[in-house]
């Protein structure tokens, strides 16, 4: 455990045995700087935390099950930004793509409020006319959240008639309930409640004074309501007090002289804020409320460079699988069937076999299925439906032989290809002879699970594997299980067998590992480190207006310069391409000097020799 030679440890007595070697270097249990498995452990811990945050208590959604990974930045936008993640997203003023942490990317999209099904919002509350869509990309996949601000409007939701409060039109004296004229404190022996407390003042000091009076044992010789040390420096505290006193004096001066002054003309608020409406106001408010602008988050939250390369890598990231996938072949063998054509020609199975398939996974339509398809698509010879299962960590599709068409020899050949390419085969055999492994010849089929029905609602299971595949469970060779629980056990054994087969592959990586590597590369390449002022400005307005105007003006200037330079070229030929030198000039060569002859000189006049540098 100390990582040293056993003979050098004090108090350690070694046995005298030639077959015993106390110095095993391969089993060094001493502390290491970076353990070999620390990266995987941290990755899986991060994946579990992300899954708990995203899915715990949020699935299934009250609006129904939806696949949020198909939602992108361009969807539901007005005006339309196309059908895929393309260049219009980079110039959209209502979309901001940023990095929330080292492994989480966020896109904030402000959209018009969508019509919500099943009743809308909570009774008594109204929503804003705009909503914010948040797309999160992390190692567990992509999730979509729609957020909208809630407001309470008593004039709309309340059934009672709201009477306005009576306000005096003339104020004879200014208000005195400001800084220096607070209400007198309550007696220490009086419990503050709603009857003796002003409605606009908190009673924390009064409550602490009451506790100190009734329970002096908790005071430890000090007042509970006394003010503690100020966190501000003495000079800054004095400046703050002076500012508050000046504000109070200005307020009193306004209340005394407001009738003598002329009415100030109303100013249009929109003209002060700008002629155009801020289309990212709700999103910037949400980003601020999430704490992204806090000092503790400043080191993690950054903007991303809005480039075409970023969009390409985001499309590649969305196309990756974020969960473990499995393809499992399920074959039915009837009584007396021994050849491949007889077995693959079955259109259906027995009642017990169909009940086993119904308990194995969900039946999905391949034509409308958007999850993992395992190479099967509707109309492609894979049938119309197939059992499918999905959890937070894996997706599995079962290639059922009785669900695939077998009308022609080509259909049987296509079925053989789908089944033969699977790593795990599950065979339901009602034949009196054992199922032979070479019945379906394939170089795959690393794991073979065969189920034999027995009387009394039991099943006999045989599990065979290739020599290089490790031992797995929960089924083992020649075990007896009940029919009622066989579907869950076979499903678990098939997934465990698939993992055991992939463990033998030297370059195999889990989907989370690949996604984490691509996320790290994307964050390192496209992070746009900016000062805090520029960061806040871009959060308020994703597109910099001044930068756009500068780019446009610089583009017009460049075009004007090109046009001006082109006008000095020969007028006899069209100048569609800029003239380029035939030979590249060396570092110590000068270009040919123009001749002093007039423009009417013939072109045969030789040019002077170039001057060489010494």
Automatic annotation (TrEMBL):
GO BP terms: regulation of small GTPase mediated signal transduction
Compositional bias annotation for Pro residues: 600-614
Signal peptide (residue range): none
InterPro entries: Rap/Ran-GAP_sf, Rap/Ran_GAP_dom, Tuberin/Ral-act_asu
Any Pfam family matching the protein: Rap_GAP
Region (Disordered): 564-614
PROSITE patterns the UniProt entry points to: RAPGAP (PS50085)
GO molecular function ontology, one term from the record: GTPase activator activity
Domain of life: Eukaryota
Domain Rap-GAP intervals: 314-522
Keyword Aminoacyl-tRNA synthetase: no
UniProt KW RNA-binding keyword: no
Protein name: Rap-GAP domain-containing protein
């Amino acid at each position: 455990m100390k990582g040293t030679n056993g003979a050098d440890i004090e108090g350690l007595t070694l046995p005298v045995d030639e077959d015993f070697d106390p110095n095993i270097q391969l089993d060094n249990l001493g502390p290491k700087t970076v353990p070999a498995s620390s990266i995987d452990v941290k990755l899986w811990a991060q994946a579990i935390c992300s899954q708990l945050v995203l899915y715990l208590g949020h699935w299934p959604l009250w609006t129904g099950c939806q696949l949020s990974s198909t939602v992108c930045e361009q969807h539901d936008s007005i005006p339309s930004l196309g059908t895929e993640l393309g260049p219009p997203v980079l110039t959209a003023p209502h979309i901001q793509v940023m990095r929330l942490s080292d492994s989480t990317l966020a896109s904030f999209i402000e959209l018009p409020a969508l019509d919500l099904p099943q009743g809308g919002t909570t009774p008594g509350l109204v929503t804003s006319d705009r909503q914010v869509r948040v797309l999160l990309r992390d190692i567990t996949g992509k999730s979509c959240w729609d957020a909208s601000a809630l407001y309470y409007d008593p004039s709309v939701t309340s059934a009672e008639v709201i009477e306005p409060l009576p306000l005096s039109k003339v104020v004879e004296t200014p208000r005195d309930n400001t800084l220096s004229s607070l209400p007198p404190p309550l007696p220490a022996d009086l419990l503050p409640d709603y009857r003796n407390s002003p409605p606009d003042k908190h009673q924390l000091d009064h409550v602490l004074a009451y506790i100190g009076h009734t329970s002096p044992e908790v005071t430890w010789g000090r007042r509970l309501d006394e003010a503690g040390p100020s966190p501000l420096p003495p000079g800054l505290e004095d400046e703050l007090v002076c500012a508050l006193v000046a504000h109070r004096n200005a307020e009193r001066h306004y209340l005394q002289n407001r009738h003598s002054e002329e009415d100030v003309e109303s100013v249009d608020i929109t003209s002060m804020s700008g002629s155009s409406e801020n289309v990212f106001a709700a999103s910037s408010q949400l980003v601020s409320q999430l704490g992204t602008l806090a000092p503790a988050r400043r080191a993690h939250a950054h903007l991303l460079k809005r480039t075409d390369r970023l969009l390409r890598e985001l499309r590649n990231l969305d196309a990756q699988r974020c969960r473990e996938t499995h393809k499992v072949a399920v074959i039915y063998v009837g009584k007396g069937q021994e050849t491949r054509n007889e077995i693959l020609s079955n259109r259906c199975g027995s009642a017990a076999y169909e009940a086993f398939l119904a308990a194995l996974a969900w039946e999905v339509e391949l034509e409308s299925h958007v999850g993992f398809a395992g190479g099967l698509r509707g109309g492609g010879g894979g049938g119309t439906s197939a059992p499918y299962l999905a959890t937070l960590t894996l997706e599995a599709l079962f290639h059922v032989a009785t669900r695939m068409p077998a009308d022609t020899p080509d259909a049987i050949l296509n079925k053989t290809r789908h089944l033969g390419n699977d790593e795990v085969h599950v065979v339901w055999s009602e034949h009196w002879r054992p199922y032979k492994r070479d019945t379906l010849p394939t170089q795959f089929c690393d794991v073979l699970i065969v189920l034999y029905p027995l009387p009394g609602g039991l099943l006999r299971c045989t599990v065979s594997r290739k020599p290089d595949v490790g031992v797995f469970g929960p089924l083992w060779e020649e075990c007896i299980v009940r029919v009622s629980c066989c579907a869950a056990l076979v499903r678990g054994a098939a997934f465990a067998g698939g993992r055991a087969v992939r463990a033998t592959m030297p370059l195999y990586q889990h989907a989370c590992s690949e996604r984490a590597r691509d996320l790290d590369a994307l964050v390192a390449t496209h992070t746009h480190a900016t000062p805090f002022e520029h960061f806040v400005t871009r959060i308020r307005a994703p597109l910099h207006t001044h930068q756009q105007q500068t780019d446009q003006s610089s583009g017009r200037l460049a075009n004007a310069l090109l046009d001006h330079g082109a006008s000095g070229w020969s007028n006899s030929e069209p100048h569609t391409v800029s003239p380029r030198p035939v030979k590249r000039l060396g570092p110590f060569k000068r270009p040919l000097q123009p001749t002093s002859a007039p423009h009417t000189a013939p072109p045969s006049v030789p040019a002077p020799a170039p001057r060489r540098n010494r």
